[in-house]
Amino acid sequence: MSLIESVHADHGATFGERGGRRIVEHYGRPERAHRAVRNGAGLFEPAYDVVVVEGDDRVEYVDNVVSNRVPDADGEGCHALVLDPQGGIELELYVYNASERLLLLTPPGLAEGLAADWSEKVFIQDVEIRAATDEFAVFEVHGPKATEKVASVFAGPSTPERRFAFERGSMGEAGVTVIRTDALAGEESYAIVCGADEAERAYDVLATQGMAVAPFGYRSWETLTLEAGSPLFPTEFEGTIPNVLGLRSALDFEKGCYVGQEVVSRVENRGRPSRQLAGLALAGDAVGVPAAGAAVFDGDASVGEVTRAAVSPLLERPIALALVEYGLDVEEVTVRVGGEEVPATPTELPFVEGSERSARLPAY
Questions:
Q1: Which candidate, 304, 302, 247, places its Cα nearest to that of 278?
Q2: Which of 238, 271, 304 is the C-terminal boundary of a domain?
Q3: DSSP character for 108?
Q4: pLDDT, tens only, 79-102
Q5: Whole-prediction pTM
Q6: Structural domain total, the chain
């Protein structure tokens, strides 16, 4: 559950669940909150799980497990993947080097299993791995005025300019770490991390002090990231070969990709992918939104399937991400919606240009 659930409830939140975690779905008008983020700044509590890795060999150990090179300097981080023996994505995570420990942010519900699995594989290395979700709170600010918003309440160094870099300081009486993130909503973005006992104080400063900010929940997060063309875990990631998604920023081709201590074939040597991530803009008069797994057709031939879809608040029509045949070059396809075939136009991502491009836009 959220560490500040009562605060969300006081703001009229409707709650849902992600990965066994209780989350805010919306505060009553998710489309309005979506537009507020696009026009200014929005405040969001993502449901990250947290794993802490300590010990002298912490960087070496995690570096050997994940797809990207783990930074060995304090104040730096990265987005990385854990791959299964076939090279498919098993897990995504953010890794931050916080001096004497690494802080790992994972999708909700996965920290306990990850910590237990990795701990079993430690032999003679000086490494201690533990789930620490209850010890931290994470909030995010997204929007074209996110930098202005965070700077207006952050007492410390200037807000970090590089993605995954972070600075320590305070917001009011709460000690916080401010991280420049990877713009998954297609806007400037920051994560604010603090201790669990500081969560309510930090959120209150973000919500009520400095420049105005609009609180939003997962319903708006899903449409924002969809408009931005950002693949997410698990909908697009889980089980997918990374080069199908064009995720070059999450892969270090010099080191290869690892599962536990076992090297699997490098993604760069897998050749051209068989599928690719595509954007689909459905006909404006489409009745309903395609479900995940809905078939995509070129004439009578099935050429892919939808991973997720929603009505775009800005475009005012259904849009979707889909995994389709690599190199598909047609002006129109059809998508099955409620038993009917609805015309859809393959569209270059992102659907909507914001203040910053998502780091997950496919690089084919």
A1: 304
A2: 271
A3: T
A4: 999 999 888 999 999 999 999 999
A5: 0.94
A6: 2
